[in-house]
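Hi F.,

I've been meaning to write this up properly since the lab meeting, where we talked about keeping a consistent format for the predictions we share between groups. The idea is simple: the sequence comes first, exactly as it goes in, then the structure tokens exactly as they come out, then a line or two of notes. No screenshots and no reformatting. I'm using this chain as the first example so we have something concrete to point to.
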Amino acid sequence: MNNLTKDEMAIIEAAILEQTQRGNEILSYWHCKKCCAEKSPQRMSVGWTPKGIQVWCETHNENVQHIDLLGQQVAVINVKEAA
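Output, unedited:
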């Protein structure tokens, strides 16, 4: 359960809608627990590993999440060139 006001929720929902309209389909984000506890800016690296995808906290130099794709083949879809 969250402690956000209706106005705060409306701002978040508007931001999510705007991101979705731009093609951002992320529903949930990862955060470094230590950065959150310290109220530090999040500095993450995300990339492919031999097993899958890893999320790494650059600030604390440690793993946040490592997703093992269990050897499944994956494809990248709808990639747009950065301007």
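Notes:
The CA atoms of residues 44 and 61 lie 10 Å apart.
The chain has two helices and three strands.

If this format works for you, I'll send the rest the same way.

G.
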